[in-house]
Amino acid sequence: MQHDDDEEDDTFGFDESINEYKDWLRELIRDEDSRDLHDDFRNDTIETYTEWLREEGKLREISAYQAYINSRRPTAAQEESNDSSESPPSEWPSHARKKKKQTEGGKEVGRGTLKGLAAMAKRMKTQQKKLKVDFSPNLGGPCGDNRRTFVDEVVMFMRLNTPLIGVRFWKDVKPNVKSAIIEKVMDAWDIEDNPETREKILKIAHERYKGWRATLSATYRAYPTYEMRMKNLPKDIDIVEWHYLNMYFGSRKFKKVSRRNSSNRQQVKVLHVMGSKPFSQCSWEKRDPETGVEPGQMELFKTTHSKQGEWSSEMSQSIYNAAARKLSLEESDDSGEQESRCTSVPTAKEDLVFQDAYKETTGTKSTKSHGKGYLSNPTKNQLLKERIKEQEREVQILKEQLAKAAADKEADKASLKAEIMEEMKAMMTQNMR
């Protein structure tokens, strides 16, 4: 199998093709071309890139691949061999898309890539235009019965609007595209419209956009040649998008970043066992049925990093054991077992001890909170509010200190005055004798 850093890809001119398109696009924008071509939304980029391919004389060849795909009927033998990929099963990238098996009627078996159907079905069943979703007060992520439906619909709006062409990272997506995703989600769901909710929507969209591109990158690596990749177009991707991604994933710049990221992932030693279920949903499911209080960070970490008594990794177990020892030392007067402590009402002290143990055990220098999922990180607005509250607390403490100092001063003056009066009385009594 050829890997994506092989010479075959570099000789194809992938870097040059991408640079030529970017130069053409910049000229188009600068000259205010009358063809009304844009590169904001996904459909805009498909139309614009198609026009560039037409001008370069490359569109006919790419369209031929689409014609081939349209006329193709996979056989059972092709399905069993991952649709004619020459990659052995052991080398097939774990996140790469595989062709799904079909029934005799041509219907695909298994869950597809299309999102949002569950939300439509629920709205029809409940006759409600807007569905409700809860957010975990501890971790910030969506939770409850409609959690998966909510996330799926965020993903649907993200994929419909966010471009794959001309974008390297989520930060490259234009603000008007991100705003459109937020507005569509807000229109479809009964959730509070505030900066925190909007940031959560964008965090979910950001995380799933990275996953979407990672899946497409893995699919690119699953096939050894450009021709095979183009013939195996991923579902819900336009043929010109797939051509662009072939250019991008084959570029030297992307390969360099990809190798570095792969190396970093191999060094990750703290692994959870929750699959696609977010920590916020797990925390919500583990809440106290009477009080509604969600578990503390230690209990949540144990739940998300172990299964049937087996830890996901030695590092995960070491973190938990270190936190348990630290907590036991700090609460030496507590004779209860660690297990009973973890199932009690969580305290801020326990959470701080766990975070300290995590950082000491792993050696991480990151200041963010660990073991709680990506949505637990505070939003910018929440950070601002926390800073304001902290400043208010500091001002209040200063006021109390000043008031105490003034009270102590008055008390000292009163005490001194009383002492002087006592001495004067004593002297007068002495003189009278």
Automatic annotation (TrEMBL):
InterPro entries per the UniProt record, alphabetical: Probable_transposase_24 (IPR004252)
UniProt-annotated stretches for the region Disordered: 73-112, 359-382
Pfam families named among the record's database cross-references: Transposase_24 (PF03004)
Coiled coil: none
Biased composition range(s): Low complexity: 84-93
Domain of life per record: Eukaryota
Protein name (record): Transposase, Ptta/En/Spm, plant
Organism: Eragrostis curvula
